[in-house]
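Batch job 17 of 40 flagged for manual review because the log was empty.
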Amino acid sequence: MRITLPLTGIILSITTMLFVSACSKKDSATVATLMAAADTLRQDHKYSEAIGVLEEIPTKFPEDTSGTIKAWVTAADICGGDLQNFAKSIEYHEKIMNRFPEDPQSPKSLLIVALTYEQQLQDTEKARHLYEEFLKKYPNHEIAESVRANLALLDLSEEELNKRLESAGSAP
């Protein structure tokens, strides 16, 4: 009888360790599996279903920052690119900026939102405000010069912009 109790304890400990190990492997595989499922749905033009799958990732795996960010970036891309729902795309990028302000994706999301306001929504004042916010938050970021150039172009009239485009096209 004494032999059975320690043996049972050892078996229980090993079983628990294997279960915990399997769960952590399953969790990372599940994020990848959900991303793959969303990608397949997107390829099949089932955009709403793909977004639904992507929304599961932050809910099921709230501690997985990279999985959450990747899910939200993909959802934003589906909304803005495939569905032309720019407001919803902006919402996903704002979630990233608000929840993960120090993540490298945050400045990229801010730029995407600014470009969306400028190019898709034709709201140059909002775009200007966002470009200025970008430069205030990230003045030395690798894409800051591009942001400065975009901001400068907002101040040009259509005629001035066309002249610049013509001169750039004729330059050697």
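Reviewer: the log was empty due to a logging misconfiguration, but the result itself is present. The first helix runs from residue 4 to 43. Unflagging and moving on to job 18.
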